[in-house]
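Subject: sequence -> structure tokens, single chain

Hey, anyone have a minute? Need the predicted structure for the following. Not urgent.
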Amino acid sequence: MEEKTRKSWGPGRVVKFGLLAVGVLIFSAVSYCSLVHVYGPYYGTVVDLETQEPIEGAVVLVWFYFSTVGAGSEGPAQFVDAAEAVTDSSGRFSIPMKVEFNRGWVGWWDPDASVRVFKAGYGCYPLHRGSLPHIFPSFTIPAWESVRIQLPKARGPTERLKSTSCAPDFEIPCQKARRMLDAINEERQALNAGKLSCP
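Reply:
Had a minute. Here:
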């Protein structure tokens, strides 16, 4: 009987094995960070903390980001997108579902949307200590769940000015937070403070 000869590990076989290993690693990375992520929808009402009356004209801003992986550690967060809504006469707001696609990043989608709510004369949500509700993780808003956001009235010019720090410090393009910035700058102008510039 003829003996079966064992295949040797020649250069061609090593290259094929290497390509297979790289393919498995890439597939694992893509599976881990996912090519597509769905955010939202987000909806609810904004009311006065004391009177529980609806607040019309409050600006609700949500934004999303992707946490990248650096060399051996967590890299910088990448801005993905943002959306705004303004409350109606019943204090209601609604931000529709958004489908986002990975732009070649390696890491993971932040599962929660960050949120800020601003209305002139009120404390900023969630930065003002008196604002409710306290949601975990902090500074986020849950999807598919009606949220009742309660804003405390700002006490005097100093607190009103402090509330204008509601603009997110995360790098959001101006056109994505235009309503928020306009509302904040209108309040700052009424308080004789300088306008916030858009980088």
